[in-house]
Amino acid sequence: MDAIRQFLAMGGYAAYIWPSFILTFAVVIGLAVVSWRRLKREEARLALLEQSRPGRRARSRTAA
Amino acid sequence: MLTRLANPTRFMRLADRLLPWLLASTVLAFAAGLVWGLGFAPPDYQQGETVRIMFVHVPAAWLAMFCYSFMAVASFVGLVWKHPLADVAAKAAAPIGAGFCLVSLVTGSLWGEPMWGTWWVWDARLTSMLVLFFLYVGYIALWSAIEEPERASRAAAILALVGAVNVPIVKFSVDWWSTLHQPSSVMRLDGPTIDASILWPLLVNAVAFQLYFITVLLWRMKAELIGRRIRALSLGLAAQEA
């Protein structure tokens, strides 16, 4: 228990060290999540658009 | 290689093959760097435990500078050779660089207060890094301010190239001017001056940041390419209906 308390105290500099790591990983995770979700959204939009658009073969058959 | 990748479909296929490996190695490298940096690296003989801030501060600053250089090269390639992926790459990289530039500024401030006794000084290193952050913000703003993609791409590329002059200023500011910020201790011609017990975890973290950059960059580039395809298809549909 003492070892954990000592680790968290960071030699008296906890107020500087932990916020540094928390901010860094908030940016790392935040950027990754936003980028990943945007990719999935765009993929879904493209799939929807391609579904609603008749394929080339289908279109030429209608034209014929 | 660059010409082969000019085909977006081929690029997407290659990205899809690489991404699972990149993601796995990013997570592993981050885990190793974090555990080593926080748990096993020894405290510095002068700075005590605060030296641990270096494990995120320095890789973030390196990545911020690398990312801007990458954007400048991509912008140059885009302007001169009209490579179809160049402006996609530069645009996709900008928010990542801006994020890590901010991380390096804030963690630097959190390190400065206990060690220098101040959160901020207007010395050459800190000021040029702040300028780099503004360049990132300006670049992102320019892309969203101009509606026509071709004009936006050209204007943003010119800004990226003009701003690139700041990258060597950031790097050499600690040699050219007398700064409160310490001089380089890793990327020196005569070799690193920091102890191996601290240098190795620092390098592992730097690799983690770099792998992360490539992974997120590929996600963002894919999203941008799909977005462009959607726009092209919608325009085609609109033209057909008209």
What's the short version?
Chain A is an all-alpha fold. Chain A has helices at 2-9, 14-52, 56-63.
What does this structure look like?
By secondary structure, chain A is mainly α. Chain A is 86% helix and 0% strand. Residues 57-64 of chain A have low confidence and may be disordered. Chain B has one domain (29-39, 53-183, 193-241). Chain B is built from seven helices and no strands. In chain B, helix 2 packs antiparallel against helix 3 (86-116) and helix 2 crosses helix 5 (149-163). Chain B starts with 7 loop residues before the first helix and ends with a helix.
Spans of chain B of at least 5 consecutive residues whose pLDDT stays below 50 are none
Sheet having the most strands of chain A? none
Query: Which sheet architecture does the biggest sheet of chain B show?
Result: none
How many DSSP H or I helices of chain B?
A: 7
> Which word captures the global form of chain B?
globular
How helical, in percent, are the residues of chain B?
Answer: over 70%
The overall average pLDDT of chain A, rounded, is: 85
Order of helices and strands of chain B: HHHHHHH
What oligomerization state is this entry in? heterodimer
- As a percent range, the share of strand residues of chain B is under 5%
Q: What structural category characterises the helix and strand content of chain B?
A: mainly alpha
Terminal-residue CA separation of chain A: 80 Å
* Number of DSSP strand runs of chain A: 0
Q: Largest interface: which pair?
A: A-B, 29 and 39 residues
